[in-house]
Design a protein that fits this description.
Strand content: 15-25%
Strand order of the largest sheet: 3-4-2-5-1-6-7-8
Structural class: alpha/beta
Order of helices and strands: EHEHHEEHHEHEHEHEHHH
Distance between the termini: 15 Å
Shape: globular
Number of helices: 11
Number of strands: 8
Amino acid sequence: MAVITFLSVAGAPGTTTSAVATAMQWPRPALFIEADIAKTSSILPGFFRAQYPHTRGLSTLSLEHLRGELNPRGILESAYRLGERYFVAGFDSAAAGAGTTSLWGALAGTLAAFEGANTDVLIDLGRYGVNDVRAPLLQAADSVQVTLRPTLPEIYAARDRVADLRTRLQPVGHVDHLELWLVDDVGEQYGQAEVASLLDLPISARIDHDPSAAAVFSRGSNPPGKFDRSRFQRGIKAGIDTISQNIQQRQDRLGVRPSETEEATA
């Protein structure tokens, strides 16, 4: 079991689109949590094309937490299922998201129970702010993907914020979990080596600028021709491979693998 968070610190680089696309290509069963506190759910009207009423999601889990009833089963029951993928929608009101503070530590602890279920967790944090109350989810992550457009304004805006993320991850020894997930834009852009040098972070993915392919995950649009072989989809797959390899390498260095943990507790 692994926990992967996607977040942005500058601009609007398509964090949710990247996270949903990753969840849909993820090679193992996955639980997706839309943990953006700045707005209501975008995956229900977007990716799911308003096919479902917003009757469950983080607002439901927040109430369960207040009643002391937050548990793994409740998380799955609050999700919308697509095969082996479970999607927990965001809050049903902006006020609910802004007013939620104590949920995040409890949620991070509850997610650990998925360790023996062979289910990985992908969390969309949206814009991550200074002194963000969702720090427990950030610190619990095995991989933190900072989504960014490789343009000069976004790179410079991200420098200070990346330093803050390092500060947040330092107490739990997870500074090396930070990686860049680049999303191309139109116009002048910087190369991977330049971005990595300026922000002093490794790059896990660079996603091609392809509005038609991105709309499949942001708006629920029909896939364009040769979608599965598109550069967009190949970029997502390459990012997944890099994330998985980096997590495995860190686990190997620590001498702990999920399979060994499961065998020891069986």
